[in-house]
């Protein structure tokens, strides 16, 4: 578990034993605890203000107050501070009510073992919000600096998006032009302040800008309400896709030109620096949801160039391949942002190569001093690695628990099979003495059938015991290539001669640290699975390849929890019927099989468990009617010790 070790926790609990249990379970999971207990309302009021807490854990029923008061009081003082309720006698409908009031989670005391995971989740979310707030405060501060510097230097800017003609003026431009801030920004109002010759000239320049991407700079005079002003007018046109483009420009009041131009440039760079160096992916959108700007982190996280999506609608361009649920959430977030409300949403994102990424997204609006919404902002945090780690951890926990459970049952069942096998053996020995007895001769096939069934049951029990004892292996350094050649030599004797086998194993020894018995299990099982998949395939073919790969130059970069820098990649591929998407998610689940009575459903779970314990992994890629490929990644050893 990836946790921040230090934790300041306020525990509101009238039971000393429960308090100690909470502290103990958190310490057992690696937290370094500073904890205080509050039993009475007065103690709670004092302690909540005395320290800086990371989290509050509270019982619901307390001597002179309850969990409802704890939630409301904490949210009143520290709105973002997480509160976790732990109690045993709270109705389910009440628990939902208190979660709506602001509680982060509700746990029965019988499920206290889950507390460290809940605390870790809420602590990470709380610290992330604090970090985001600091980053955004810096960004807002940069915007304020830019606005102030424009005011000091008398420089305003504007932007017009075509064909909608959506127009934006900066605050300083309103001041230069002499218009009230409530005035609707239109460029015709600016041109009306020009003398007639300059008005005619600007019309020609403006038309030229609409035809081609270029810039223009000129000195003109504006007849404002406060008098004539000499200004430097700079215009630049930029075309997007789908006949969309914008004109960006600045108007610099140089009537009383000072030496503040350097300050303007400095503050603009400061604003851009904060925007581009944010740890979050940031999209700046217009009120129709079109992308105006995206920072450097957005380009890296979403693997899209700013020039390719600028001016396009965010959801239909960036998230066009996302699932419908994510698109609905994003659309709802945009609607709330247009009402000046923030919205947080978890969404999936599909890259062009088919990889899936996951983001925590925040929508909110940027307004002018009058409260008018100018832009919509989407901040997105890439949590792909976290999601992958959580799924891998959940899978390993499930396999481990099931292995322990299955091992216990298999051991007891094996004890029952032993005397049954002995009795059948005894009957065979005794009845073989009476070969002339017709009744005995008729029953011998039944005895033989019972004996075979018992043998199959014993083999199944042995596989279950193997699955439950993956940890009990004796690892040593061995040559994976040599092991593979030995396995192929053995399994090819008993497999169909019609199958064409292609191998590309190279000539370099592939040293790994593993149990040779488990390696045999992995290789033989994968080969047998491929043979089974090809039983109804014309021109069946199996391809096996072995190669050394670097972590940072492989698909493992997106797995997230691999630790080695080099791996041996062993690929088993066949040209069989493939695995359907509905089934492929279940193939590593214990006892799931598509072989009917011919399979136990333990082969792939055993392989998965062995690979994870070894520090590697197994990935699968399959296409219907094209075949299936299993890729195994073994941590590489440079030399044999």
From TrEMBL:
Q: Which residues form the PAS domain?
A: 267-341
Q: Which residues form the PAC domain?
A: 341-395
UniProt entry tagged with the keyword Phosphoprotein = yes
Q: Where is the Histidine kinase domain?
A: 408-638
UniProt-listed SMART domains: HATPase_c, HisKA, REC
* Database matches in CDD domains: PAS, REC
> GO terms for molecular function, please?
phosphorelay sensor kinase activity
First-level EC class: transferase
Q: Which UniProt keywords apply?
A: Phosphoprotein
Pfam families in alphabetical order: HATPase_c, HisKA, PAS_4, Response_reg
InterPro entries associated with the record: CheY-like_superfamily, HATPase_C_sf, HATPase_dom, His_kinase_dom, HisK_dim/P_dom, HisK_dim/P_sf, PAS, PAS-assoc_C
Q: What is this protein called?
A: histidine kinase
Organism per entry: Leptospira terpstrae serovar Hualin str. LT 11-33 = ATCC 700639
């Amino acid at each position: 578990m990836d946790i921040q070790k230090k934790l300041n926790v306020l525990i509101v609990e009238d039971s000393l034993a429960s308090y100690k249990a909470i502290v103990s379970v958190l310490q057992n999971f690696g937290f370094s605890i500073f904890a205080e207990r509050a039993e009475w309302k007065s103690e709670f009021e004092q302690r909540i203000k005395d320290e800086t807490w990371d989290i509050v854990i509270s019982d619901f029923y307390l001597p002179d107050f309850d969990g409802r008061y704890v939630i409301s009081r904490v949210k009143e003082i520290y709105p973002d501070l997480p509160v976790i309720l732990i109690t045993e006698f709270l109705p389910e409908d009440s628990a939902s009510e208190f979660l709506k009031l602001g509680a982060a989670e509700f746990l029965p005391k019988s499920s206290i073992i889950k507390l460290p995971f809940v605390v870790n989740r809420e602590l990470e979310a709380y610290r992330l919000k604090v970090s985001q707030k600091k980053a955004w405060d810096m960004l807002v501060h940069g915007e304020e600096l830019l606005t102030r510097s424009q005011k000091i230097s008398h420089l305003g800017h504007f932007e017009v998006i075509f064909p909608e003609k959506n127009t934006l003026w900066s605050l300083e431009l309103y001041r230069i032009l002499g218009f009230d801030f409530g005035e609707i920004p239109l460029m015709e109002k600016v041109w009306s302040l020009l003398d007639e010759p300059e008005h005619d000239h600007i019309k020609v320049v403006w038309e030229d800008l609409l035809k081609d991407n270029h810039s223009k700079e000129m000195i003109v005079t504006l007849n404002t309400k406060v008098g004539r002003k000499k200004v430097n007018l700079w215009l630049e046109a930029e075309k997007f896709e789908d006949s969309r483009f914008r004109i960006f420009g600045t108007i610099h009041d140089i009537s009383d030109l000072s030496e503040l131009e350097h300050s303007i440039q400095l503050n603009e760079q400061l604003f851009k620096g904060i925007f581009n160096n944010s740890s979050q992916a940031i999209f700046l959108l217009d009120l129709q949801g079109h992308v105006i700007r995206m920072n450097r982190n957005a380009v890296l996280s979403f693997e899209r160039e700013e020039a390719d999506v600028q001016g396009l609608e965010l959801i239909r361009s960036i998230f066009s391949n996302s699932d419908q649920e994510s698109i609905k959430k994003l659309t709802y977030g945009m609607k709330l942002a247009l009402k000046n409300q923030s919205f947080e949403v978890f969404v999936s994102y599909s890259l062009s190569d088919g990889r899936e990424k996951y983001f925590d997204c925040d929508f909110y609006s940027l307004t002018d001093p009058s409260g008018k919404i100018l832009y919509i902002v989407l901040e997105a945090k890439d949590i792909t690695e976290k999601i992958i780690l959580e799924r891998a951890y959940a899978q390993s926990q499930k396999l481990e628990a099931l292995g322990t459970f299955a091992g216990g049952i298999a051991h007891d069942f094996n004890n029952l099979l032993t005397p049954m096998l002995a009795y059948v053996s005894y009957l065979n020995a005794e009845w073989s003495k009476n070969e002339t007895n017709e009744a005995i001769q008729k029953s011998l096939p039944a005895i033989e059938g019972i004996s075979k069934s018992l043998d199959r049951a014993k083999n199944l029990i042995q596989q279950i015991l193997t699955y439950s004892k993956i940890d009990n292996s004796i690892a040593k350094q061995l040559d994976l290539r040599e092991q593979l050649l030995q396995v192929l030599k053995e399994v090819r004797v008993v497999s169909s001669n019609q199958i064409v086998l292609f191998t590309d194993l190279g000539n370099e020894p592939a040293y790994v640290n593993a149990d040779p018995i488990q390696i045999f299990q992995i290789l033989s099982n994968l080969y047998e699975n491929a043979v089974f998949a090809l039983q109804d395939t014309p021109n069946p073919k199996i391809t096996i390849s072995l190669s050394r790969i670097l972590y940072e130059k492989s698909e493992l970069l997106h797995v997230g929890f691999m630790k080695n820098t080099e791996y041996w990649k062993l690929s088993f591929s066949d040209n069989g019927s493939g695995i359907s998407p509905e089934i492929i998610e279940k193939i590593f689940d214990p006892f799931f099989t598509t072989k009917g009575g011919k399979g136990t459903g333990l082969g792939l779970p055993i392989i998965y468990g062995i690979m994870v314990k070894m520090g590697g992994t197994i990935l699968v890629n399959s296409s219907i009617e094209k075949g299936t490929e299993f890729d195994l990644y073994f941590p590489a050893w440079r030399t044999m010790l």
